[in-house]
Amino acid sequence: MGTVYQRVLLKLSGEALMGDLNYGIDPIVVEQIAQQLADLIADGVEVAVVVGGGNIFRGVKGAAAGMDRATADYIGMIATVMNAMTLQDSLERMGIPTRVQTAIAMQEVAEPYIRRRAIRHLEKKRVVIFGAGSGNPFFTTDTTAALRAAEINAEVIFKATKVDGIYDSDPHLNPNAKRFNSLTYGHVLTHDLRVMDSTAIALCKDNNIPIIVFDLSVPGNIRRAVLGENVGTIVGGFCEVS
């Protein structure tokens, strides 16, 4: 079966790397994610990743505790680089060439983000992991994912979460919550469904980049999404609800 998408961007939250831990990085989970990405490379798919840092430090919480918001956000950006390097290490131990590019200069451990260089890496079937967010405080890694996807001409954003799509209410609290297969950008914005932050959704809408929200914990789900299987909710299609 051929893949539906040839160049994709995967958005990973920092929490996705924790597994069942309360803090930090679970090496087993990272290895599982890396294996799924390795499978995509074997299929000839070009893969970029934006990773968050909430498993180590979250800028919003730091600001709520009294830190200067910009300072807290910069610390959060550094946390994302730690996650990016961890994922890079796991991929390269599997023989997958990988580059980390950061929006804040860290030349000893990563390349600076350069759009043309990132695209060239993708064309050579190297996984490119974008760290340090957009390099600007007050912007989330969700917004970074939308921005980088537009810059590298990604065909889709895969938003890997702990639930299997978008629901009309919290499925953990409401066993009768309804899962949607497809929603428009406008519906997500109007009803504040918090799939990604509103800036990210607006960027995807303006650049016509679909977002597929799915459960990362199911083995093989990333590849199934690339193959076009129904593994979650697509934002950017028709709307199931008025």
Automatic annotation (TrEMBL):
Reactions accelerated catalytically: UMP + ATP = UDP + ADP
Q: Where in the cell is it found?
A: Cytoplasm
**Pathway(s) this gene product operates in, as recorded in its UniProt entry:** Pyrimidine metabolism; CTP biosynthesis via de novo pathway; UDP from UMP (UMPK route): step 1/1
UniProt keyword list: ATP-binding, Cytoplasm, Kinase, Nucleotide-binding, Pyrimidine biosynthesis, Transferase
The answer to whether the entry has keyword Cytoplasm is yes
The cross-references to CDD domains, in alphabetical order and at most eight, read: AAK_UMPK-PyrH-Ec
Q: Output the superkingdom of the source species.
A: Bacteria
Keyword field contains Kinase: yes
Query: What is this enzyme's EC?
Result: 2.7.4.22
Give binding positions for ATP: K11, L12, S13, G14, G54, R58, T161, Y167, D170
Residues annotated as domain Aspartate/glutamate/uridylate kinase = 7-215
Q: Which InterPro entries match?
A: AceGlu_kinase-like_sf, Asp/Glu/Uridylate_kinase, Uridylate_kinase, Uridylate_kinase_bac
Could you say how this protein's activity is regulated?
A: Inhibited by UTP.
UniProt xrefs under Pfam families: AA_kinase
HAMAP family of this UniProt entry? PyrH_B
Q: Which PANTHER family match?
A: URIDYLATE KINASE, URIDYLATE KINASE PUMPKIN, CHLOROPLASTIC
Summary of subunit composition and partner proteins: Homohexamer.
**General function of this protein:** Catalyzes the reversible phosphorylation of UMP to UDP.
Q: Name the family.
A: Belongs to the UMP kinase family.
Q: What is this protein called?
A: Uridylate kinase
Annotated source species: Phormidium pseudopriestleyi FRX01
Gene encoding this polypeptide?
A: pyrH
